[in-house]
Write a structure and sequence with these properties.
The protein is an alpha/beta fold and 290 residues long. It contains 9 helices and 11 strands. The chain has helices at residues 47-64, 83-92, 109-118, 131-137, 142-156, 182-192, 211-214, 218-237, 246-256, and strands spanning 5-6, 15-20, 68-73, 96-101, 121-125, 167-174, 196-201, 241-242, 263-265, 272-275, 281-282.
Length: 290
């Protein structure tokens, strides 16, 4: 019998609102439903609705005495023409901001300056080194460009990581292929000066045709899980926070062996909300259509 589990109770008092501002993108990532190769209707969130929601969040922040972080993603959020004015407006409401991007737009000096000035966190999606990243994302030589971009962001931020913003994070998608080089990749992120590395396993909802041949295998996840605490410690000593807990790894291992785990409490809407490009708010992206 499978024992129901809880997500870990939120440790921070911060309230995070993830907003999918658009569904446009200029890349062809093989696992993504927003890839430019997918024929679908592209939309952006209504600016007045988001500003109004920002006002609501400002009130919530005041009343609850909790800091609200609005985390902007897409699609590719830097393809949304209203990103800069709306971000500036949300900052006026005293909200914190973060952005998740494929990183390409940050090559532009002015765009990078905006991100550095306005964001508490910048998360760049990088799945591996060299071909590992290019193959998944439909480009060539992308990692060299991303290294230049990340190193420049880090250098602009000044020498003291602990006291300066924004936090520079990288998120990687773990596939059957990228998990093989993950340790080398993680150390390379430490070389670049990245503050935090997060990862999620490949999911099958967006591109079910890609999933079976690329999903993680059980015999890959076991050694990964065993090695994880040691790797985490090594990277911590190098100034990189490799994010991931025992329960997170447990869930990945269960998926790899096709084992469903019941969740008895995921603390819905107590620390997190998701808003899609139509302006629908829900406890997470899986519950938007419920
Ligand atoms: S860059 Fe992001 S939004 Fe664009 S196709 Fe890749 S995963 Fe999807």
């Amino acid at each position: 019998m499978i024992k129901p589990t809880s997500f870990e109770a939120p440790t921070s008092d911060r309230f995070v609102v993830v907003v999918r501002v658009n569904t446009h993108c200029d890349l062809s990532c093989l696992y993504c439903g927003f890839s430019k190769d997918m024929h679908r209707r592209r939309r952006s969130i209504s600016v007045p609705s988001l500003i109004r929601f920002g006002e609501v969040l400002r009130e919530f922040q005041c009343d609850s005495n909790r800091k609200v972080l609005v985390s902007l993603l897409g699609g590719e959020p830097f393809q949304w023409h209203s990103l800069i004015p709306v971000s500036n407006q949300l900052l006026q409401f005293d909200l914190s901001l973060s952005v998740t991007t494929n990183g390409l737009a940050l090559e532009d000096e002015q765009t990078a300056r905006f991100a550095m000035d306005c964001m508490d966190e910048i998360t760049i999606s990088i799945d591996g080194l060299g071909d590992d990243h290019d193959r998944l994302r439909g480009g060539k030589g992308m990692v060299e460009g991303l290294e230049r971009i990340v190193r420049r962001l880090v250098s602009k931020r000044g020498p003291d990581r602990c006291q300066t913003k924004p936090r520079i994070r990288v998120n990687a998608v773990l596939t059957r292929h990228t998990i093989v080089g993950f340790e080398t990749f993680a150390h390379r992120m430490a070389d670049w000066g990245v503050d935090a590395l997060t990862f999620n396993q490949l999911g099958g909802n967006d591109r079910p045709e890609f999933y079976p041949e690329n999903r993680l295998l059980e015999d890959q996840v076991l050694p990964f899980t065993e090695r994880f605490p040691g790797l985490q410690q090594e990277l911590r000593e190098r100034g990189l926070d490799l994010c991931g807990s025992e329960s997170y790894l447990h869930r990945i291992a269960c998926t790899a062996r096709h084992q469903a785990i019941a969740i008895d409490d995921c603390f819905p809407a107590t620390h997190f909300l998701f808003v899609d490009e139509l302006g629908v708010a829900s406890p997470c992206s899986f519950t938007t259509d419920c």
